[in-house]
Amino acid sequence: MAGSEVERGEAGLALVTGGSGGIGAAVATALAERGFPVAVHYHRQGERAESVAAAIRAAGGAAWPVGGELADGGEAEALFAEIDGLGPPLAVVVHCAGTIADCRVERLSEEAWDSVVASNLTSAWQVVRRAGRRMVRQRDGHILLVSSIGGVQGRFGQANYAAAKAGEIGLAKAAAREFGGRNVRVNAVIPGFLETPMTATVPARAKEAARAQNCLGRFSTVAEVARAIAFIATLRDVSGQLFNLDSRIL
C-alpha cells in the first residue's frame, strides 16, 4: 500500500459513506493508498463493502465495513459510535451515499421525493452534524460532500435529486462557516458523469447529451475522480468551496 502513514499510526481514520458503491469504493481505495485507515460504509450491500475492505487489507492497508441507514438518526448515531471504537480519530469524511428516482416533476410522487431527499440530503446532514462534533472537539478534520452538477444546473426529470444536491452544497458552505474557527474544513465536490451502478439505468441519449456538453468530449473515469477527491481530502487550508471535477462548464 502506497504511503507508510498507516504503519506509523499517524493517519487518522477516513469514513467513506456509500463505500460499497462505484465511486465510494474507488474513493475508499484512493484514501487507503494515501495512508488512511478507512471505514467503508454501506446501507444494504454489506458483502460489497466487505469486499472493498478486504481488497484494501490485502494491499497492506487497514479497513473495516460499517453499516447503517444514515438518514435515520438512531442508526447514524450507532454507526458513529462504532467508528469511535475503531481506534484512530476521525480525520476525513467523504459522503458519497445517495440514490436517484428520476421522474418529471409534475408526476413525481411524495415517496420518490422523500426517499431521494432523505438518502442524499438528510443523510449528509446526519453525517455532518456527528462528524462535526468530533472534529470540533479535536480541532481538526475535513468533511467532503459529493454533490452533482444537477445541484447547480438542474436536470430534466431529476427535481428531487437536483434539490437534494443543491442542498448539500448549501450545507457544506454553512457548516464551513460554523466549523472553520475550530480548524474543521467542509467542502463539496462535483465528480461529473461517471459510469457507475447508479448511472447504469440512465438512457443512452442522456449520456450522449452529457458527453456533448463536456469540453473534452469524454467522461472522467471513476478512478481518476477518486484520486482527485482523495487529494482534496488532504488539503488543510481550504474550506467552504465547491470543487468541480466535471468538464461540463457550470
Descriptive account of the structure:
- The model is unreliable at 1-9 (pLDDT under 50).
- The protein has a seven-stranded parallel beta sheet, with helices on both faces.
- 47% of the residues lie in helices and 15% in strands.
- Helix 3 links the parallel strand 2 (38-42) and strand 3 (63-67).
- The chain is of the alpha/beta class and 250 residues long.
- It has nine helices and seven strands, in the order H-E-H-E-H-E-H-E-H-E-H-H-E-H-H-E.
- The chain has one domain: NAD(P)-binding Rossmann-like Domain (Rossmann fold), CATH 3.40.50.
- It has helices at residues 5-8, 22-33, 46-58, 73-84, 110-138, 150-153, 159-179, 204-213, 222-233; strands at 13-17, 38-42, 63-67, 90-95, 141-146, 184-190, 242-244.
N- to C-terminal separation?
36 Å
Report the CATH architecture.
Answer: 3-Layer(aba) Sandwich
CATH superfamily: NAD(P)-binding Rossmann-like Domain
Topology as a string of helices (H) and strands (E): HEHEHEHEHEHHEHHE
Percent of residues in beta strands? 5-15%
The pLDDT mean sits at 91
CATH fold descriptor: Rossmann fold
Quaternary structure: single chain
Largest sheet, if any?
7 strands, parallel
Which stretches are low in confidence, meaning pLDDT under 50 for 5 or more residues running? 1-9
Strand order of the largest sheet: 3-2-1-4-5-6-7
Could you say which structural class the secondary elements and strand pairing correspond to?
alpha/beta
The count of β-strands is 7
Discrete helix count:
9
> What is the CA-based Rg, rounded?
17 Å
Q: What is the global morphology?
A: globular
Query: What is the count of structural domains?
Result: 1
Task: Kindly state the percentage of residues in helix.
Answer: 40-55%
